[in-house]
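Re: your question from the hallway

Yes, I did run it. Sequences:
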Amino acid sequence: MWKREAIVACFSSPTPAQSATSSGDVDPLQKKRPLDDELLAGVGQSILISGELSGDEDLTVQGGVEGKIALRDHVLTVGSHGRINGQVTAKTIVVLGHVTGNLIATEKVDIKESGSVEGDIVAPRVAIADGSHFRGTIDMQPRDQPKPDIRKPEPSSVNGELARV
Amino acid sequence: MSSPASEPETVYASKTLASCLSLLFSRPAAEVVDLGPVIGSNVTFLGDRVDCKIHVEDLYADIDRHIKQDQLDQLPRFLSGRFPLPDASIDAVLGWDIFDYIDPLAASALAEELIRLVRPGGVLLAFFGTVASDHPRYVKYFIEDAAHLRYRSYPAPRRRWILHNRDISLMFAGLELCDSVLLKSGVREMLFRKRPC
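Structure:
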């Protein structure tokens, strides 16, 4: 299983304390905040993990993972250098790198322009950017509300039928 | 977003698309095979609004790979075993214009495989060019709404074949022709249906 201290390279997000200019208008209390509070979990580019990976926080993968990933109520981001070979389960999955395996999200799967996915997606919302690569099956789970009637589009002046043949 | 070397996009009315979607809408948990490259807005439309399960297969990428590897002669055999799906498991096939970019032998192999996949009462939508062109282009078909498609063309590695009606009829002998419409764009839209049991 995932031992954060041992295998995870951490990224810190810019905080007001870090992004402030030298003007000095930074809350001194923020400066003293321990660094641990600002860390986001991440798998760095040079890291390769073989085996199952689970956690209870958001995770960014820039390296390689060979095996299942489960972040039940959190966001998994596969960075542009990230490569995953295995099933992923999370609340939201954002793909900028490569995934070979099924993606199961309780909220959303978002494949960005640089992203590539070969596998099946199960999620209530799926966004696939132009230029991305996807091959597999997409199942956007049944919803409770009835389908809207889309069979009667508004009249339009676009190009149309020439002749029935 | 416009892709490099793209031409102006045009929206065309499509009665065959409307018929195809109408059938899908009437079937709970319908399954669709899309033979084109993945298009995010189509996935949203089909998955979210029509409530289908979508199999994105992108045969155009397969053709490009066979051309790049100089293995076009192996395409018919490849297409015969291309879909790991059970017989009669699919409600609709969005074939777009894929048959225009493969030779007749490969086209027959693909048609046979697609006929195998379609459920009784299910449909196959395919477009066929009627005008030859010296500029090889693929077209991406964006579903605008239930009756309109937006065409976006981009460079292709090989020219379109122009198939005759007789050849098309022979290829889809296992299906009945529901509708055939010639558009101003020179594209013939055809909707085939497998006879209900």
